[in-house]
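Batch manifest, entry 17 of 40.
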Amino acid sequence: MTKLQILILLILLPISAFAHGVEVLVSFFYDLLTFVALTVFIALIKWKSAGKTLLGIILIVSTLIAIISTSGIPYDANRRGIELIMCGVPLVSVLSVYFIFRRKFRLKKAD
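Output type: structure tokens
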């Protein structure tokens, strides 16, 4: 097997758990997609490194806050709320900090 085939197999392996009724993986995929999308967003914006570091720290801290705040909630009864909190808190916090500080950390164009 090539490395690409092994990678694809490892990525698709958790999907087989859906046949057993494990719906927690849906939330995991939402969280992973949100985290990866925000990480790519932070990497692609044209900001100074201090601003990108600030956004990265905000992303990590807000994700940890979302995890801690939802850790004691029963999953089955509150699945949609947990998914909204886990995806919404990092998204709102990173984008709000981006829009607040977008002029301060923007790279100046060299003419």
